[in-house]
Each structure stands twice: as structure tokens, then as C-alpha cells.
Design brief:
The chain is mostly helical. Helices cover 68% and strands 5% of the residues. GO terms for molecular function: ABC-type transporter activity.
Length: 387
């Protein structure tokens, strides 16, 4: 078992890099899991916008619009000049400035009210766009009353009265299908990044050392068969990888005991174990593709970060374009993340069981694929050396 002992002695010298990845993971998981709330009762609440109204018409109907906004939003008084408008928006004293143009009431009476108001709002403001819709609806209702023969006073009174009719609307999330993720979800989300980075820096570098020409030939000169040497190396890699994974699982039990000691928690753990096999196979394959320790360290950073960004770990899949998501499907991290989400929303249905099992299968296919490629590269390398 000399090779086994040398493996871990060499690993001890690489321990700094392993510890750095562990600390990065710990910081990421604890920080981000704090954002995961188990349940949220109400997820929608109508927000009031800070609005400034500049009434340049001073008519019955323009005052009606002002009254409507004062009842439903937060009215802020500002000066009616361009500089004041710019300053107030810049310093976020207001979010929305509505300008009621001269001729507003006439426009409502004739039904041509498209250009009788204008607004200035914070760019890309969702609440501002929602307020646009509310104002358009109010103007449409005013115009309808005027077209029906009501006087300006009656139209203003009826429209304002109608706007006061509200319904107490709340959107509820179904338990297990919420956008708010559990703490365990966020914890296990980052495991692929740290496993690939940590194991490639530690295990991958040691595999390179054992493949150095001088050391490789010295081992070949001994009585140890090549198959036994490779088997011991793989065993050492597996033991170290499993110990790293076990540490992460134990840490999750300490931090999020109530989340982990459940059926979902067991699936989170199983998902990470399956990905451990993917990471080990990937690292074994990459060890045949690079030749120096510096190249291995570079590969560890590029591959771990690349798979994390494109696979949905660092950037949520819903924020990616369709073309990027389609490409992500050829990456093992994509299926890990999709499975992580499926587990977090798991509510014990047969369809969800099948989805989770299918994703496990796809992850295992990646593991087998990487391992087969590694065996091919190993065989090609052996033929080249003896050729």
C-alpha cells in the first residue's frame, strides 16, 4: 500500500488549496442559504409609488385624476420645471412624475386622450409601468362616462367612486412549489462548484505527479502490475473524495438539521453523492488532458467556474436566454441544479419521483461517459509510450 500512503502524503502538501475551496464553499452556502425561506404566506402586495402630479389644465377632470392618485399613491409636491423634475428623480425623492397637459378635459370629452398626459419615471421601473396601466384605465373610464352623456362633475365623481372599489387579493404559494427556496437547497446548490474545484486541485494534481515520466517508470520497474497501481490510485482518490463529501453532509446536518432530517434532505444528499461520481470521473478524464500542475490549477478554476455559471449554480436558469439554457443541457451541472430544484419542490407525487430518478440517471450517464473517455485516453497514452 505504498502508493496509497504516498498519495496522502502528497495530498498533505496540497492541503492549502483544498482548505481555500472549503472556506469559499462554507461562506457561499451559509450566506446564500440565509436567503432561502421555507414558506411565504403572501407573495404579492400592491405598492404605493411616490408620485408628483403637475396639473397644467386645472379642470374638474384633471383634479379628479389628482384625487385618484392621492388616494392610491404617495403624492409628493415638486416644482414644475425640468431641472426640479430631474433632481427629484435623481435623488429618488419621487419615482414617477405625471404631467397633465393643457387641454386635458377637452381630450377626455372628445375621446382623444392618448397624448393629454405624459410621464417621467425611473428607467425600467416595474411599479412605474404598473402605474401607467392604472392611469390609462382611469382615463378610459372617465372618457366612457363623458361619452355616455354625463357632465364632467358626474363623470369625475362616478369614476373616483369606482376606483375606491377594491378586493383584498393575495397570491399564495403552494407548499413545495414556492419561489423561495429552503436553506438546504442553497447549501447543496454550491456543492458541485466546490467538489470540482477542490478535487481537481487536490486529486487531479496528485494524479499528474504519479504520471510524471520518472516516477511512472520507477513504479513500472517494480513488481507491481499496472492494473494494481491504477486500482490503488483510484481507491485513494475515491476515499479522499468520499471523505470531502461526507464532511459537507455532516456540516449540513449541523447547520440545517430540520431540513436535512427529512425525505427531501435524503434526496439532496443522494443528489450530491451522484454528482460526486460525476466530479471524480471528470477529474480523472482531465488528468489525462493536462500535463503540468499549473495547467491543472487553471483547469480547476476554468471548469468549476464555467460549469457553475453555465449550469445554473451562480446564475439562475430562469435568468438565462433560451439558447444558453439549451446549451446548458449538455453540462452535468444543469441536471444537478434541475434535480436540486425538483427535490426542493418535492410533494410526493409519482411524476416528481420519475423526474428526480431520470435526472439521477442522466448525471450517472455523464459519470460513465467521462470515465470511458478517461480509459480511452489512458489506453492511448500507454500505446504512445510503448510505441
Amino acid at each position: 500500500m505504498k502508493i496509497f500512503q504516498v498519495f496522502f502524503k502528497t495530498l498533505k502538501k496540497r492541503s492549502v488549496s483544498v482548505i481555500i475551496y472549503f472556506m469559499i464553499f462554507l461562506a457561499l452556502s451559509v450566506l446564500m442559504s440565509g436567503n432561502g425561506k421555507k414558506q411565504t404566506e403572501a407573495v404579492y402586495k400592491d405598492a404605493k409609488v411616490k408620485v408628483a402630479v403637475l396639473d397644467r389644465d386645472n379642470s374638474v377632470l384633471s383634479k379628479s385624476l389628482y384625487d385618484y392618485l392621492s388616494n392610491t399613491q404617495k403624492i409628493v409636491e415638486i416644482k414644475d420645471d425640468k431641472q426640479s423634475i430631474s433632481d427629484e428623480l435623481f435623488y429618488q425623492n419621487v419615482e414617477y412624475v405625471l404631467i397633465i397637459k393643457k387641454g386635458f378635459e377637452e381630450g377626455i370629452k372628445t375621446g382623444k386622450y392618448e397624448d393629454i398626459v405624459e410621464n417621467v419615471k425611473v428607467p425600467q421601473s416595474i411599479s412605474g409601468k404598473l402605474l401607467d396601466s392604472k392611469i390609462d384605465q382611469y382615463l378610459s373610464e372617465l372618457s366612457t362616462y363623458m361619452a355616455a352623456g354625463f357632465s364632467a362633475e358626474e363623470a369625475a365623481k362616478n369614476t373616483l367612486k369606482n376606483s375606491e372599489i377594491t378586493a383584498d387579493v393575495k397570491l399564495y404559494k403552494v407548499q413545495g412549489a414556492s419561489e423561495e427556496k429552503s436553506s438546504a437547497y442553497y447549501y447543496y446548490l454550491y456543492i458541485p462548484y466546490v467538489l470540482i474545484g477542490m478535487l481537481m486541485t487536490g486529486v487531479g494534481s496528485i494524479l499528474l505527479i504519479f504520471r510524471k515520466k520518472d516516477l511512472d517508470w520507477r513504479i513500472k520497474c517494480s513488481s507491481m502490475p499496472e492494473l494494481r497501481k491504477n486500482s490503488i490510485l483510484l481507491l485513494a482518490c475515491g476515499v479522499f473524495s468520499f471523505v470531502c463529501w461526507a464532511v459537507f453532509v455532516l456540516l449540513s446536518l449541523l447547520l440545517y438539521r430540520t431540513d436535512i432530517l427529512t425525505g427531501k434532505g435524503a434526496l439532496f444528499i443522494l443528489n450530491s453523492l451522484v454528482f460526486l461520481l460525476v466530479a471524480m470521473s471528470l477529474i480523472y478524464m482531465v488528468s489525462f488532458l493536462v500535463k503540468t500542475l499549473n495547467a491543472m490549477n487553471m483547469a480547476a478554476n476554468v471548469i468549476s467556474l464555467g460549469l457553475s455559471f453555465l449550469g445554473g449554480i451562480f446564475v439562475p436558469l430562469e435568468y438565462m436566454s433560451k439558447s444558453v439554457v439549451q446549451f446548458s443541457k449538455v453540462l452535468p451541472t444543469y441536471w444537478y441544479v434541475v434535480n436540486n430544484e425538483a427535490i426542493d419542490s418535492f410533494v410526493n407525487t409519482t411524476k416528481q419521483y420519475h423526474t428526480i430518478l431520470r435526472n439521477f440517471g442522466i448525471e450517472l450517464i455523464f459519470a460513465v461517459l467521462f470515465f470511458v473517455i478517461a480509459l480511452y485516453l489512458s489506453k492511448s497514452r500507454a500505446i504512445a509510450q510503448h510505441g
